[in-house]
Amino acid sequence: MSRRVASVVVALALPWLGACQTGADPAAADSAHLAVALPAAYRDLPAPPPGTPVESGPRVGLDARQQEIIVVAVAKWMKNPGSAQFGSMTAARNRFGVVTVCGTVNGRNGAGTYTGLQPYIGVLLGPPARPEFVVVGIGGTARERADVTALCRESGATT
Q: Which of these, 131, 108, 133, lies nearest to 123 by C-alpha position?
């Protein structure tokens, strides 16, 4: 993966990852209740300049193992991981081999009510035998939904 593409991934992920702190009070976390960390290989990459476009690519299929990795990673971001219900999931691979995955997830909020399907986006990293999925964002608010939907459209992985 080129450093530039990895930098875009880091730049997209940092706003959401910054809200997740190890040891934070689960009830106080707004974006998630479980600690989430970017893999060490991607933490120290420089952020791309503002306005850097997302690299688009053709759609690709996801095997059962990749789908399982994605479901587990997205569920960790949910306030009630056990309540997560997944909708559609699509992926696109850009010319650098980076696989962007977009999908929808429903789950219970703090009041125990299902929120309805919300879009999410992330990047599938690592070798096929040991894939990792880094969640970039989940559209919990209207603004986040618009951002996630736009990124999915730009990447070619629109659900």
A: 133
Q: Looking at residue 65, what DSSP letter applies?
A: H
Cβ atoms of residues 2 and 15 within 8 Å? no
Instruction: Give the tokens for residue 1.
Output: 């993966």
Cα separation, 147 vs 137, in Å, equals 9
Tally of domains within the chain: 1
In 3D, which of 128, 109, 112 has the Cα closest to residue 61? 128
pLDDT at residue number 49? 67
The band of 42, judged by pLDDT with boundaries at 50, 70 and 90, is low
This prediction has a pTM of 0.70
The whole domain housing 48 covers 3-155
Element (H, E) at 15: helix 3-17
Q: What are phi and psi of 120, to 5 degrees?
A: -135, 160
CA 138, CA 30: separation in Å to the nearest integer? Answer: 12
* HEC string for 80-149: CHHHCEEEEEEEEECCCCCEEEEEEEECECCCCCECCCEEEEEEEECCCCCCEEEEEEECCCHHHHHHHH
Q: What is the mean pLDDT of residues 102-106?
A: 95
